Write the structure tokens for this entry.
Amino acid sequence: MLSKRIYLFDFDGTLGDSEECSIVATQGTFKEVNLPIPNKNQIKKAMGIPIEKSFKSMGADGLTANQFESLLDIFRERYKENEVDHLRLFPYVEETLSKLKERSVVMYVLSSKKTDVLQRNLEELGIDAYFKDYYGSDKVEHYKPHPDGIYKILEKYQHLKSETLMIGDASYDLQMARRAGVSNCGVTWGSFSEADLLIEKPNFIVHDFRDLLDLTE
């Protein structure tokens, strides 16, 4: 049993299955502006960091500032169009969040999405009410794996590091937690393999969303 009562969740690959949505939107965007189209593996590995950073690593680093902003706008519009068909909760997410809330676990979402998009996604999936607050990339000065987001949540809500657990599917989430001095838990149903996560030596690793309940019993 853990004394962790503060859970910080990543969104993409942890709560929401947005992989296909991101792949379709990214490839369509790069094709539209005549850039080399990233493959699925490149996109999956970049899903844990903001598009402002990941798109440059996938070949958009030669654009002017205006061209790059236009690229981001096209992607956001394509992503929104694809949400209805491709964005889903992973199995057992809602029922587990409900049980965690019953056990007085205070929950937040810390994502590389913009906060308005994150809020829209949480509302679309019907899970926004389980979280005390949610932080997107626009609420931090430094992106993952920098621990800025964790620091801001802990400071604003006066939580202790010793009571906090960061949960995510990407190496960036685990690195961020370690740098912030909080415990971390890797999940194996997202974009990163179990082998990738084990390199980061997580405090915990789970293979089913319901396994998170075992950490609070």
Remarks:
- The radius of gyration is 17 Å.
- The longest strand covers residues 106-110.
